[in-house]
Amino acid sequence: MTSAAPRPTGEDDLWSVDEHLEDILSSVHPLEPIELQLLDAQGCVLVEDVTVPVSLPPFDNSSMDGYAVRVADVEGAGEEFPAVLEVVGDVAAGADDPVRVGPGQAARIMTGAPLPPGAEAVVPVEWTDGGLGEGPATGMRARSLAPEGAEGQVRVYRPAAARAHVRAEGSDVKAGDRALEAGTILGPPQIALLAAIGRGTVKVRPRPRVVVVSTGSELVQPGESLGGGRIYDSNSFALTAAARDAGAIAYRVGAVADDAETLRSTIEDQLIRADLLVTTGGVSVGAYDVVKEALADIGDEDVAGSGIEFRKLAMQPGKPQGFGAIGPDHTPLLALPGNPVSSYVSFELFVRPAIRALMGLTDLHRPRVRATLKADEALRSPKGRRQFLRGRYADGEVTPVGGAGSHLVAALAQADALIVVPEDTVSVEPGTEVEVVVLG
Q1: pTM, whole model, 2 decimals?
Q2: How many Å apart are CA 143 and CA 145, to the nearest integer?
Q3: Which single residue of 16, 38, 94, 390 could bond 415 by disulfide (Cβ 3.0 to 4.6 Å)?
């Protein structure tokens, strides 16, 4: 992994959002493919086309519980003059040697069972008397309770066209077809298809393992009592959940106190299970911002691109950021600010695309749309900063939620979009068309 050359980080020379993102994405590369069992591959990205080895269905089969018949034998059948056929046996799902249906005969057949030789169509059991001689049936009696249903006679009250209620061999997919193409994310339907065509394993890029570490001596685990000057740790929960939502396997590490050596040791311990590390807090200019202290010189000076660089970005919220690589495998690390809104916005802009790049996806970003600003007053934004405001998006309109404060967690919980105010814009009037990042 390599990173862009260090740049000055003074107030007069800020990194733009796009520069920082480009640096991250140029340094993060897809994980190496591995072969996984189907259920282990859920959520992973397929790295090769999958071809169908056997048609689905692999044979003509019944789509109904009923009777397999010849079309000529039920032609003209009706309530007053039903067709009376000899039942020659049962055809159950899984049968590999079904009975043959000859002229004047029928075979009782179950859904999914192979169409027996000689049969041309299936009549649902509701179109028959079910072999009971008591008028139209509503269903079949279990074979264990009434084995005689597989013999005797059945009355058919309606005609059936050729291939009626028959699922044709290959009507789903045919042998040689491409079932799935490389780049597909494997969800439940795709897993089902792979299983249906007989694939027990599949080659994929694994889901990235993301470790989230929050910092701050003031942080308390939810569920515990708060002391004076303490707050609950919400960032690590939000970012771990966001990493899972992005497709990663995410691990949350309990809040680390403001001690550089403890933080450095914690991060080094986590490298064994991390494809990507995310820290939150401690990246600003305060005396207790220990992430900078702990990570500024953690890299190997003999390895190009190793180490963490701390930057100031021309954005609000989320001005202080850090990025680089640590450890023997040069694991990428993104250091995010500690205010809840700042950390979440930073995750959406920088960490989520990195996770999806590790997965081997080409669609890295949340969708962006144009929407009309619906507000009571103009939005204000500092010149030279790209501002991201929380909002709710619906029907082509976006409404701001809460203020610009980076601590407003309740407002963040109500938002499903980010309103983007460009660097050169200081005021956005109601009714103006704006860019919106759709979060949901």
Answers
A1: 0.83
A2: 5
A3: 390
- Give the chain's end-to-end CA distance (angstroms, integer): 31
Residues found in the chain: 440
Burial class (CB in 10 A: 0-12, 13-18, 19+), 54: middle
Query: Minimal CA–CA distance to 54: which of 162, 184, 196, 150?
Result: 196
How far CA 93 is from CA of 61, 105, 162, in Å, comes to 9, 20, 21
- Residue 341: exposed, middle, or buried by beta-carbon count in 10 A (0-12, 13-18, 19+)? buried
Q: Measured between alpha carbons, how far is 299 from 6 in angstroms, rounded to an integer?
A: 14
3-state secondary structure of 215: strand
Burial class (CB in 10 A: 0-12, 13-18, 19+), 432: middle
**Shortest CA distance to 283 belongs to which of 339, 331, 326?**
339
Give the pLDDT confidence of 310-330 residue by residue, as tens digits: 999 999 999 999 999 999 999
Residues 6+ apart with CB under 8 A from 12: none
Point out which residues pair with 50 in neighbouring strands: 180
Q: Name the 3-class secondary structure at 188.
A: helix
Q: Return d(Cα 354, Cα 174) in angstroms, integer.
A: 38
Is the per-residue pLDDT at 405 higher than 60?
no
Q: Which strand ranges, in their side-by-side order, compose the sheet holding 320-326?
A: 249-256, 209-215, 276-280, 331-336, 320-326, 307-312
Q: What pLDDT is stored for residue 301 in this prediction? A: 44
Q: How far is CA 261 from CA 226, 255, 293, 306, 318, in A?
A: 25, 14, 9, 19, 25
Cβ-contact 218, 228 below 8 angstroms: no
Per-residue tokens: 222:
């939810």
Cα distance between residue 276 and residue 132, in whole Å:
68
Residue type at 260 in one-letter notation: A
**74 is written with which tokens?**
């039920």
User: Closest by alpha carbon to 295, among 337, 318, 263?
Assistant: 263
Torsion of CA 181, 182, 183, 188, to 10 degrees: 60
Phi first, then psi: give them for residue 373, nearest 5 degrees: -70, 125
- Residue 219 or 237, more confident: 237
Residue 33 DSSP class:
P
- 397 burial type by CB count under 10 A (0-12 exposed, 13-18 middle, 19+ buried): middle
DSSP 8-state symbol, 327: T
